[in-house]
Request: fold
Amino acid sequence: MSNPLLQPDMASTQSLPPPGLVEKVSLERYVPPRKPSLVGLSRAELADAIAAIGVPAAQRKMRVQQLWQWLYVRGARHFDEMTSVSKELRAQLDAHYTLARPEVVAEQTSVDGTRKWLLRLPDGHAGGQPHEVECVYIPEPDRGTLCLSSQIGCTLTCTFCHTGTQRLVRNLTPGEIVGQIMVARDCLGARDHGTRCIRNRRRPRGRRLHREAAGRSADEVRDPRAPAASGAHHPRTNHW
Reply:
């Protein structure tokens, strides 16, 4: 069975730009690592992933629920942490997959509580220096807004926007986008304290939310059991 995580670059799924705007061509394509990360996968994709390593069909629903809880609710960083999963399955998962997510390279905190992280992405390119993106948390009285990167560079050439002058390297994958939310939640302590740190905004300012990867990630985090959500509120995310 082919590995369901080795997916083509999402750039091929882009929609057409509105009249008067010219989109740039991606300089790179996403190159899946030998051991893909499970971070960012939906329940259906998790089921495909464990099916690919031989988990019987009768066990998949239960195993997916276990993985979902460990990944997105408890925020496990290693398979060994998943104590409710059998040792045999943990070993199989570790042999074929990872739980890689972006790494915090630098953090800045403003006097108003706004926090910005420079994140280094897991392997996803053919060679050279790892790619880095930014993620910003803006606090509000009852919650906050998390601004996520959805691309390396920018697709458009808007003259009013500085990032519009930058080259487009490639679009981020759903896992790279969801991984930013998981990192932010850990840094904010939201996992331990139930903080409702993210609210959902489908129509971002600046770059358009027009790609399948960003759309899939938005759908993922609006699930009440997903990494960004807690309590009765759905998350708000801005995509850059």
Q: What stands out?
A: Helices lie at 43-52, 57-73, 87-96, 174-188, 190-193, 212-221. Confidence is low (pLDDT under 50) at residues 7-15, 191-197, 200-211, 228-240.
